[in-house]
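Working notes for the structural subgroup meeting. M.R. asked for a predicted model of this chain before we commit to crystallization trials. I am recording the input and output together here so anyone reviewing the notebook later can reproduce the run.

Input as submitted:
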Amino acid sequence: MKIIIYLLLLVPFFGISQKNVIYTQRVFPKVDKVLEFEKAISAHAQKYHTGEWSWRISEIESGKDAGGYQITEGPSSWDAIDSRGNLGAEHNNDYHKNVAIYLTERGSSGYSTYQDSISTSVLNDWSEKFSITHYVTKIGYGYNIWTLFVNLRPVWKALGQSVAVFASSSSGPNQYAVVTRYKNGLKDRALINNNLLLKQYELIHGNFSFQGYTETMRSSVEEHWYELLFYRKDLSSK
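Returned structure, recorded in token form:
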């Protein structure tokens, strides 16, 4: 009994220490300063963001943020982030004086946590090309969206899709980012044909079940959009 109680007391610690937290930042360089920005961000990443805090930088190729760059840091834990502290004057001066000068005022940043139970890919099974589908949930409909992903997971697995799902954490509206990783390049996009998805969904969940999926989307999702991203190894530090 004492052992069980001890393990239960450790549950919050495991939750805090688990390395499932991703920090993402999106930046948008000035149109005429892209080359200067890329040179500066690469130098900054190599000097200040290595090891556990390495940066994966990807170029956003399509969607409403096309032309921007996504900087991904992690995975880490809340405990590690809490104890990291300020990155120091040297780091901050380098970023603001050598990188930020090439950026527009547009940008965003936030934290998200990897959702293992509704993913088909492990967190750090990265790929060079991937898409992100964003689902912003309506207030009070979080459980509906979670159920939607629970039902989609076996469909993704049956279609051979590598999917990692992330939930936003104290970073704006409640939303999920469904990251589809194209391990064999863009030819893997053939696996997401809408007709194939519908057919496989109803093979698993029954005839006309896809109608329930679309009804959940209509009633529970506030905003929904897609984008394609390409990893830039030449800019990254991992």
